[in-house]
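To: structure desk
From: M.T.
Subject: fold request, one chain
Message: Could you run this one when you get a chance? Sequence is below, nothing fancy, just the single chain.
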Amino acid sequence: MFFSIIVPVFQTPSILKIFLDSLSNTIKFQTQIIFINDGSGNAISELLHQFSLSHSSFCNITIIEHQYSLGCSKSINEALTKVLPTCEAVVFMDSDLILTSQWQERLMNDFKTKPNVGIIGCMLLYPQTGGIQCCGITFQDNVGRHLYLNSRPEKIYLDTFQDVQCTIFAFCAIRYCAIKKAGYLNEDFYNGYEDWDYQMRIKQFGYSAIIDTKIIQHHWEKSNGSHRNFNRKGNIARFWSLHHTDIQNDLNIYIQKGLMHCSEYKHSYILIDLCEARTEANNLYKYLKKEDLLNIIEYIDLSILCKSVSSIWLPEIFDSSFHMQKTSFIFLCDQFVRLLDNDYWWNLRKDYNMNDLIIDLNSNVLKFKELSDIFWPGTKIR
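Reply: Done. Structure tokens follow.
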């Protein structure tokens, strides 16, 4: 068997059933599947056993039962002890995915044709919105963020194979020979950052990580396991203490790439800083000035007026005539979806200038006028 699939399950029955249906519909080769019911209860156990019975002729299925949640690292480590020795790649999956066809075929071909690649991720989309949830991780100043978060796939510019530093275990395939070298996940990480840590360890053996952007999966992100938020700060600190010398600040590279594909960027700009992540915003502004990527004639810091994670309503920040300026604006913000509630302001603005840009800390570069095209209700701000 080429593939072994490991699925930790801390989930509701309805979401798990959607995942199992998509798994059943997309598996094309004999495959080992290891489920870990990590304290989700009897209803989940019944669904997993029903799936096992109906697929036993085609798949080698193991179900591990935990009476209560032990967390992602311990669950995956237990599953790794049961991977068949003939396996060539282990695919880590979350139990709230909706899988699409051809993912096995593409992964198999990628591993066979790219011998130096040890880690392959995919483009993850929110099924609620169609926006990108993750296309790899970008780093700057001790912060890792989901690359192109919330953008429409057709609005970004990616090669078929995108080099990244790491991705997330929601859907991630790793060569089994690399896993045998790296060993088990670090169980000091509890439901967070154990996947980043493990991939950085894999790469120490000379393997690279890529996103195959032709593999597109949908991820509800309905459950992140128990106690995730309570352990977040400790997990982040642990990750950076272990890997700070290996991480590259690559946010600027992705921003530059986005600007090169944006035909409207060659104007004079007033940069309006709406970022609450001050260190990242300051460093990005310095980079844009140093590399002379944009002709920034004025810098206005309005970040103090932006309330944490809520929508930024521009009429509340600007005076009543600000939209009449002929000079183009660049809006620098933490996440562009915070500007979605500004259709009224944009309709005023477009009579004076239609070349305004938005740059955010997830590497999105887009035209302000595109916001009306990508608005959707209930957008999640990570």
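Reply (cont.): Residues 13-26 form the longest helix (14 residues). Let me know if you need anything else for the meeting.
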